[in-house]
Design a protein that fits this description.
Alpha-Beta Plaits, binds adenosine-5'-triphosphate, Rossmann fold, 4-stranded antiparallel β-sheet, elongated, alpha/beta, 10 helices, 31% helix, 6-stranded mixed β-sheet, single chain, 3 domains, 300 residues
Length: 300
């Protein structure tokens, strides 16, 4: 069941077209990623979904309502890039204050613990590191026990360990039934967390699929290398649709192809009781898919 529907969204800032034509639906309980190069229109899109900006054209519904519906304030949690709090507010005060806005808030102490903020409860906002501010903003987005959480640049500024901890937290929140919309620059994050990803480029959806579907869709060549336990008749492999070419390097075989190459090759070997020793795979990644779709790499 769709909880967010965006159809033909368009948004300008003066003469700049920030979002040209974006459509997607987000299903209940999924982690939906929005990935794209700088300036692609990702933040503008989620700000329209969150009811913080008014589209110039197109329609958006969130839980069947118009994004500015006041009822959505307690159903949708939003963490935006560069959110700011008053400098003198302590972490504890911020968490207590935000809890008070909601009829059924989450346990803020538990959230603080999961986000590694317990030691910093007495610290003022101005004294927090960038990563701690980021973690506090995630806690505040989740504090109202939302049904949908919109998280923009969730882990930017976090060190690798804090990033992994945050991923675990996001997965555990999804496991409680919350739908999550994640804007990200990080391929690894998108690949690890997202059920589906919309790749946005120059204000349009360039592709929308599962991470595996995006990778498969670019049909990049794959290569397998292995040492067969007994000699292999090449025709066994070249007969497979997935295989384009077989090369020999001494006792090592190199099989080049596409699609589900690994499965096809290992299955046929298994039926002939041949073991693929030292098997190595060179496969396309989400990075390759991204570059192929946008013509840019993620940091450009
Ligand atoms: P990033 O990954 O850099 O955050 P983004 O994909 O989130 O980028 P947006 O922030 O939505 O992209 O910006 C889309 C376009 O709109 C860019 O060209 C940007 O410069 C422009 N833009 C964004 N916000 C404003 C604003 N408040 N006023 C004018 N132009 C804006």
């Amino acid at each position: 069941m769709a909880v967010i529907e965006v159809q033909n969204l368009r948004k300008y800032y003066g003469d700049t077209v920030a979002v040209r034509d974006v459509s997607f639906t987000v299903e209940r309980g999924e982690i939906f990623g929005i990935l794209g190069p700088n300036g692609a229109g990702k933040t503008t899109t989620v700000e329209c979904v969150a009811g913080l900006r008014t589209p110039d054209d197109g329609t958006i519904t969130v839980l069947g309502r118009e994004p500015r519906d006041p009822e959505l304030r307690r159903l949708v949690g939003v963490q935006l890039q560069e959110s700011q709090l008053p400098e003198k507010l302590t972490v504890r005060e911020a968490l207590e204050l935000y809890s008070a806005f909601y009829p059924e808030p989450a346990d803020w102490r538990a959230l603080a613990r999961e986000l590694g903020l317990t030691e910093r409860l007495g610290a003022r906002y101005a004294k927090l590191s960038g990563g701690q501010k980021q973690r506090l903003s995630i806690a505040l987005a989740l504090i109202g026990n939302p049904r949908i959480a919109i998280l923009d640049e969730l882990t930017t500024g976090l060190d690798p360990q804090a990033r992994r901890d945050t991923w675990d937290l996001i997965e555990s929140i999804r496991d409680t039934g919350v739908t999550i919309v994640l804007v990200t620059h990080f391929m690894e994050e998108a690949e690890r967390l997202c059920d589906r990803i919309a790749v946005i480029d120059r204000g349009k959806v360039a592709a929308l699929d599962t991470p595996a579907g995006l990778i498969a869709g670019i049909a990049v060549e794959q290569r397998l290398r292995f040492r067969p336990s007994t000699p292999v008749d090449d025709t066994l492999l070249t007969a497979l649709d997935e295989v384009r070419e077989v090369r020999h390097h001494g006792g090592q075989l190199e099989v080049i192809g596409a699609g589900n190459l690994l499965h096809a090759v290992t299955s046929v070997l298994a039926t002939h009781q041949i073991i693929a020793n030292d098997l190595r795979i060179e496969q396309a990644s989400l990075d390759d898919a991204f570059v192929r779709l946008t013509g840019r790499n993620e940091t450009e």
